[in-house]
Amino acid sequence: MSDKELRVSKIKDGTVIDHIRGGYALDVVNILGITGKEKRVMTIAINVSSKRLGVKDIVKIEGKALSMQEVNRIALVAPHASINIIHNYIVNEKFEVKLPKTIEGIIKCNNPNCVSNSGEPVVPKFYVKQHEPLLLKCYYCGITLEQLDVMGQL
Ligand code: CTP
Ligand code: ZN
Questions:
Q1: How far apart are CA 97 and CA 86, in angstroms?
Q2: Ligand 1: which residue has its CA nearest to atom 1?
């Protein structure tokens, strides 16, 4: 490492979300509901160089474990992110987020006339048509939602 490089500290216990597409770290942080006011040590790196992706973002959160629901929400904005679970400085577990074929209950349909918006007990459901940029198709009314529509809801 030359004196022109800045190395970001390792964390002791917590979660590292790595290989986030460059520019999307703050969306990931928002999705997790983290404001920075929590008494948690956190590092966010944006547009740092990556062999695999050209540039990437990284979010390191000390002392936090992610729920499956949180991992699925991250997949909506960072479909290639890898999640590293750190215990006592060691990477204990590493996996990639994965968008399921269908998404239920996280996103609402944009169509006011959709049965999922009618007040009936119908859980919104979408087919994932495309990962990047994201394209969802409503299971009920067939309307498509794009990345920006989805981000606006998260
Ligand atoms: N990391 C960390 N604190 C630790 C251990 C790892 O912040 N105590 C971070 C590393 O900086 C890296 C990520 O967690 O961003 C994954 O660590 P590691 O598997 O050691 O790195 P790589 O082999 O580069 O991972 P990959 O193959 O997923 O690119
Ligand atoms: Zn619909």
A1: 16
A2: 10
